[in-house]
Design brief:
By secondary structure, this protein is mainly alpha-helical. It contains 7 helices and no strands.
Length: 150
């Protein structure tokens, strides 16, 4: 489904001469192809949608860091370009969970995995990645898990 959405968005952007969207979608597709090659090396046919969503979240994190650096360096035009790429990438990700939803998901994952202390954090993270790929900021989730298990 995600792959079809990307291809359709690329075609639509090309028809509309929307160069910013074309560029951003091509970056996503290139990342998707890299993930597919890595998956084939691991014996799978192609990368899962969860892996692709995780990759896109990584792309957003990279761009947020670039925006911060560009703003510090007095380059608002480059920061704006990065922000427009983030806006395109976010169109393909599911709605992000808010803090209350994140906490509820973490508590459910802790209960499901039977995690009792900080040593079990990996089990909880794996459960969250499998169930909520693309919907959850794993960096924020990590801090919440530590506070709940610690």
């Amino acid at each position: 489904m995600l792959r079809e959405n990307l291809q359709n968005a690329l075609k639509e952007a090309m028809k509309n001469h929307d160069t910013e969207t074309v560029s951003a979608v091509r970056l996503i597709i290139a990342g998707q192809k890299e993930k597919d090659v890595a998956a084939r090396g691991a014996g799978k046919e192609c990368a899962t949608d969860a892996e692709l969503m995780s990759m896109m979240q990584g792309m957003i994190k990279q761009r947020n860091e670039s925006i911060r650096l560009y703003n510090e360096g007095g380059r608002p035009e480059l920061a704006a370009k990065e922000q427009s790429e983030i806006n395109v990438i976010e169109r393909f990700l599911p709605k992000q969970m808010d803090e209350a939803e994140t906490k509820a998901a973490i508590e459910a994952a802790i209960a499901k995995t039977g995690a009792a202390n900080i040593k079990d954090m990996g089990k909880v993270m794996a459960e969250l990645k499998a169930a909520y790929a693309g919907q959850l900021d794993m960096g924020k989730a990590s801090g919440m898990i530590k506070s709940l298990l610690g």
